[in-house]
Design brief:
By secondary structure, the chain is of the alpha/beta class. The protein contains 13 helices and 13 strands. The chain folds into 2 domains: 132 residues, Rossmann fold (3-Layer(aba) Sandwich), CATH 3.40.50; 166 residues, NAD(P)-binding Rossmann-like Domain (Rossmann fold). Helix 5 crosses helix 10.
Length: 362
């Protein structure tokens, strides 16, 4: 295995990386390869003022190394704000593995990733993300203890992420309508993977009507079969006439191009980095759409890992997941008070907690 590290005290990084790190506040970025297994990974550590960086491992066949680095940097920063806003004693980190999932030896690749994580000595704790699951973390665990999201004893954090998104939807609807009753309201789910599937179940149980899409037809069909969702093509989901849009796939779906096409009054979903640009938060507000910022809405998975990493009880963990409802309310209140978009209000909430680094989790 070979590794290259970019940090404020290191040299030899690829051109432009230091400037991007400085602009976004990253502490270090690690580039690691293991030719024997085909492993090529990037581990980005954004901020560790609140504790060791925590963030999942994303496996994706990125079109370029630049695209992979961009994703790692954005995701790591998002994890910092997510943990801070949720009151968790973790910093922000993320790892991406550049690979075609259909052409890899998963045990060998994820053991190599585990060795890369172990090399960081606890500064970074990994878990599951898009393209990875609890079984992959078993292979990581063979090389490092700095991993969560294992099959046992707590299992996949996706249901907790979905529970948090559901609470965020309730909080946003409460802010907008004065009641968080979802009976008869329509929610569009973009992406029916692990989180989207569990969110559909919670929405069905709340009496909501569901519109859904996924680029993998089988996932969407499962949601339709089990929860009575109406299916639409992936190209039509953003413009569906609904009460709530829940982006639960990849990020950057909310942009100057797509926002004018939205026909919803609330956006609250599980996808990371939903805004293509920071200014898109203001654009949502201009179009009269109440936005529950992504790193607040999708924090349930990080909170769930409190059981595995911090030894929390199940009751304490679920109570903290459910507080996402209150954080969404706090975000809307601060946005109204300071006359700023909710995307900016959420950042201010997170930054306040970062400034008080070392405080006990709420």
């Amino acid at each position: 295995m070979t590794a290259a590290t970019a940090s404020p005290a290191a040299a030899g990084s690829a051109p432009g990386v230091f400037g991007r790190m400085a602009a976004q506040g990253h502490e270090d970025v690690h580039f690691v390869s293991d030719p024997a297994s085909g492993y090529r990974g990037i581990i980005a550590i954004h901020d560790t003022r609140l504790g060791p960086s925590l963030g999942g491992t994303r496996l994706w066949a990125y079109e370029s190394e630049e695209a992979a680095l961009t994703d790692a940097l954005r995701l790591a920063a998002g994890m910092t704000y997510k943990s801070a806003a949720a009151g968790m004693p973790f910093g922000g980190g993320k790892s991406v593995v550049i690979a075609d999932a259909s052409r890899i030896d998963r045990p060998a690749l994820f053991r190599a990733h585990g060795r890369a994580v172990e090399h960081l000595g606890g500064r970074y704790i990994t878990s599951v993300d898009i393209g990875t699951g609890p079984d992959d973390m078993v292979h990581v665990r063979r090389e490092t203890r700095h991993v969560a999201g294992l099959p046992e004893p707590f299992g996949d954090p996706s249901p907790a992420t979905a529970r948090g998104v559901h609470r965020a939807i309730l909080g946003a609807v409460k802010h907008l309508r004065g009641s968080d009753d979802l009976a008869g309201r329509t929610v569009a789910i973009q992406g029916c993977g692990h989180v989207g599937y569990h969110l559909a179940r919670l929405l069905r149980d709340s009496g909501a009507r569901i519109v859904a899409s996924d680029t993998v037809a089988e996932r969407a069909q499962r949601v339709a079969r089990e929860f009575g969702a109406q299916l639409v093509a992936p190209t039509e989901i953003l413009s569906a006439a609904v009460d709530v849009l829940a982006p639960c796939a990849f990020g950057a779906v909310l942009s100057a191009t797509t926002i004018p096409q939205l026909r919803c009054s609330v956006v609250a979903g599980a996808a990371n980095n939903q805004l293509q640009r920071d200014s898109d938060g203001a654009l949502l507000e201009q179009h009269g759409i109440a936005y529950a910022p992504d790193f607040i809405a999708n924090a349930g998975g990080v909170v769930y890992l409190g059981q595995e990493v911090l030894g929390w009880s199940a009751d304490r963990t679920l109570a903290n997941v459910d507080r996402i409802y209150d954080t969404v309310q706090e975000t809307f209140a601060l946005a109204a008070e300071q006359r700023i978009p909710t995307s900016q209000a959420a950042l201010r909430i997170a930054e306040r907690r970062l400034e008080s680094a070392g405080a006990a989790p709420s």
